[in-house]
Design a protein that fits this description.
Two copies of one chain form a homodimer. With 305 residues, the first copy, chain A, is α+β, with helices and mostly antiparallel strands. Chain A has two domains: 175 residues, Formiminotransferase, N-terminal subdomain (Formiminotransferase-cyclodeaminase, Chain B, domain 1, 2-Layer Sandwich), CATH 3.30.990.10; 86 residues, Formiminotransferase, C-terminal subdomain (Alpha-Beta Plaits), CATH 3.30.70. Chain A contains nine helices and eleven strands. The two termini of chain A are 12 Å apart. Chains A and B meet through strand 3, helix 7, strand 11, helix 8 and helix 9 of A and strand 3, helix 7, strand 11, helix 8 and helix 9 of B.
């Protein structure tokens, strides 16, 4: 049976002390079956963002271990940084990649949340697809007022954690754990210097403007390139395939005689999202991802582990 | 450093005796670092085709071991089958997939050929990119008259093996070893029942008709579907990308007002060949294959081995 593959992007409230950052990522380097794609510390944000992929179990084990180390070094009472946060280990999202459903990822997040509280005594809020209260699907609702405000307001039933007593951990605060879809950053550059065209198209393509449900986007000018850009996040490529977004923008831009100069995929993209577009444009019938040599090889390598 | 990845598709002259077939593929299942994608035995052809991928060293080790087993069980003097062949182990092609050049695959094939002869005493002919004589790039030149004729003609300098004495192995015959590009089977179905349109387009798209250098193709009718098909092999997708072939056919078919119904990728395809087309249609600038989550994961998994 093909093994489950998830992505996990834990965010820690430490972006300045190199030794602490290295200590936190150490478990991700050591844990077999947990693959560390990338980690980026931002000094202004005072935040560390880690990208992991692999099977659920080793990822959960490594995240717990890294969290244990983070709580030893980070005191939220003295922490300062530009990025909103409520805890030393601020957010832990789990994302399904293959052979695992969103429902299973939600279950995973919730089981992990219980274990996390039991072992670390840091209270947990569930967000996005794992939210237990509808308003908590939105991270900003949970993080409102940040650590400083939540420390006081946590006793208010409206702000009780989903797991744990209604009080924050004295130094580590609280942690938001959840499950969410893979987010693709996709930008479309247009052959014009008129930023209003990009802004108008952004409005039309995004969910809030009546466009695609899974698209968030803004229009901006690329001064140096002499182009404008529709900069987007595709938050559910299963529902809203990249090629549909691109062809929609092409159609809208044609209204002003404007063409597409090029596009950018920023950061990671799951193979399925690219295959989806290749299948459409190449009109391939009955394509099976395991026809892709590297995906088949990955499957075989993961099976033998 | 990213590890080298090759494909290897050894062909053995046994497609009927199940126990022999299983004995031959056993080393491919056992050898660590050699991944068995598929093996298919054809009774009429009396031939076994095995698909492998992995690093060069474990693949060479496993192919040598499987060849040793094949030569113990197959006697070319009694072998019969519809497929042309000159030996118990008939052909061993090596194909570069990633982090390895064709030149390195040629070197690999020639080193393996020497080792193969030294250990098994089966003479070797080099073909395709590994050919030492220009006419031997073509497999059919080497296999002319098959085992039965070659057994006599091998003493003729024109037919001397590239490695070994000018005589065949008494039971195992000879083996053709070489390096070749990955071959993609790509079919385009047209919305018409007029097979002449498919035949005409096939002629125009293929190298022999003045079309793309890396395309071989024929036109045929798909009676049950009420369509016709341009059935192709793309023998070098680096030179001739799939999307160019498809758009060329679309353009030609438009001449008769005929449209494309769909396409088929038959068998395996390297990720690079799909990414190439996704990049073109989605107009993606500066795309790096390691942005694909699964390809990055494969890279990390292969590094830790």
């Amino acid at each position: 049976m093909a093994k489950q593959l998830i992505e996990c992007v834990p965010n820690f409230s430490e972006g300045r002390r190199k030794d602490v950052i290295e200590a936190i990522v150490e478990p991700f380097k050591k844990q077999k079956g947990c693959y560390l794609f990338d980690y980026r510390a931002d000094e202004d944000h005072n935040r560390l963002v880690v990208s992991l992929a692999g099977e659920p179990q080793p990822i959960c084990d490594a995240v717990l271990e890294a969290s244990r180390i983070a709580m030893q070094h980070i005191d939220m009472n003295t922490h300062q940084g530009a990025h909103p946060r409520i805890g030393a280990i601020d957010v832990i999202p789990f994302t399904p990649i293959s052979n695992i459903t969103m429902e299973e990822c939600v279950e995973l997040a919730r089981k992990f949340g219980e274990r996390y509280y039991n072992e670390l005594k840091i209270p947990v809020y569930y967000y996005e697809e794992a939210a237990l209260r509808p308003e908590r699907t939105r991270l900003e609702v949970i993080r409102k007022g940040q650590y400083e405000a939540l420390k006081e307001e946590v006793t208010n039933p409206e702000r009780h954690p989903d797991v744990g007593e209604p009080k924050l951990h004295p130094t580590a605060g609280a942690t938001v754990i959840g499950a969410r879809k893979f987010l693709i950053a996709f930008n479309v550059n247009l052959n014009t210097t008129d930023v209003n065209i990009a802004k108008t198209i952004a409005k039309r393509v995004r969910a809030s403007g009546g466009g695609f449900t899974a698209v968030k986007g803004i229009g901006l000018a690329l001064e140096e390139k002499g182009l404008v850009q529709v900069s987007m996040n595709i938050v559910d490529y299963d529902k809203t395939a990249i090629y549909r977004v691109l062809e929609f923008i092409r159609m809208e831009a044609a209204r002003w005689g404007v063409t597409i100069n090029g596009t950018e995929v920023y950061g990671m993209i799951p193979a399925a999202a690219l295959i989806q577009s290749a299948e459409y444009y190449l009109q391939i019938d009955d394509f099976d991802p395991s026809q892709v040599l590297e995906l088949k090889l990955l499957e075989l390598m993961r099976e033998e582990d």
